[in-house]
Please model this.
Amino acid sequence: MFTHSHDSQHLIVLDRDQHVVQTLTEYAREHKIQGGVLTGIGALKDAELGYYELHKKDYIRKTFRDEDFELLALNGNVSLRDGAPYVHVHTALGRADFSVIGGHLFEARVAVTAEIFLTPFGIMPERSFQPHLGLQTITRCRL
Ligand code: ZN
Model:
């Protein structure tokens, strides 16, 4: 993994086979980043995606194996959940036939590389559980 930070901007380049969400979460915790925006491109594999069904208050989960995907878009944020940095990421993944799948990214591994920029906020968004949604959403910010 190659990382570089300058003027509070972080470039995180993940290596082949690294877990994306786990590594970004560890990075945010190590660097005490409690709020920020994530954006990235690259190529992924073994992607576990989610689609949230509000009426069930649960995710449909599906893992896509045995193919590599272009990481067309990784968008997400870092917030505080239960007092610790939490990485929330959505993604669009491109297939060899140029079709696209996407969703909430539970986890994936790097197929080739992942070039991710993390820009910290000057604020700390905090999540709390919303019973009517069945999720922890951002409900306030601390300075
Ligand atoms: Zn999500």
